[in-house]
Give the backbone structure.
Amino acid sequence: MGFFQKIKETFVGKSTKQNEKYVAGLDKSSASFSSKINALAARYREINDEYFDELENILIMSDVGVNMVMKIVDEIKKEVRLENIKDPHAINDIIVDKMFVIYANDSYMTTKINYAENDLTVILMVGVNGAGKTTTIAKLANKIMHEEGKKVMVAAGDTFRAGAIEQLAEWANRLNVPCVKGKEGGDPSSVIFDALEQAKAGGYDVLICDTAGRLQNKVNLMKELEKMNRIIKRVVPEGPQETLLVVDATTGQNGISQAVEFSKITDITGIVLTKMDGTAKGGIILSIKDMLNIPVKFIGLGEKIDDLQEFDLEQYIYGLCNDLME
């Protein structure tokens, strides 16, 4: 049984809260991808080279990276020859299968947060300004509190962006979690140190730290993150347990380029892909795999506080491709 067929049998006709969030959040991506694949099948009586050229374009326009597109289409061609498939309408399952089998293969696919067993868990949040980092911190804090039952504190370590401290403090106030902050323009590492001390003294389980997003000044940003890491290790030797990179899905390949640059500056343990509900280009997940091979741990499927979901590949495929499930 193919990957896509298994997902159909698992999800079709079975509604859960997570199903609904993925379907609603990926509505734009699903409508665009499915309509293009269905329109492609309608234009051809049989599969030929021109069909595959158009399929390549559709995948590239869906934000699947060019190298990954070549791999996917090569695999589809092999399967079509092997099964002697002529009808374009019979190929949809194979297209989806090959896209996501390539994603799933040879990957360390954990989406779980690496919590410390007997110590404070420190999560560093990195990413360029505008990616939705501060809002994501609030959503992640809310998720950890309500789903894991953990005691959470946040640290306003982005002291350079105007309004960043107040924005995080406002979110913390709404969620009723403490926010450690310093002065705008001050030393971000001193904020992190104060937060570590307070979190340890107060018996907190998790400290989520905001950081600056000035990628255009990579040397300064690298030094800043290195200093933060040193300070964290002084207080929590195994920390930070996670360094999560926030990527705005609506920026497409530009967002992937930013992710590549950040991965050169610091060790990224996972990706948080935000604003997926705002883009019609669902293939960005495959580009992240191809360019970074870092797991997507969370995905933003809307603006509500509970719209940050743990990334689930099968739910993602269902949300992206449910219009192809005839």
Notes: The chain has a mean pLDDT of 91.
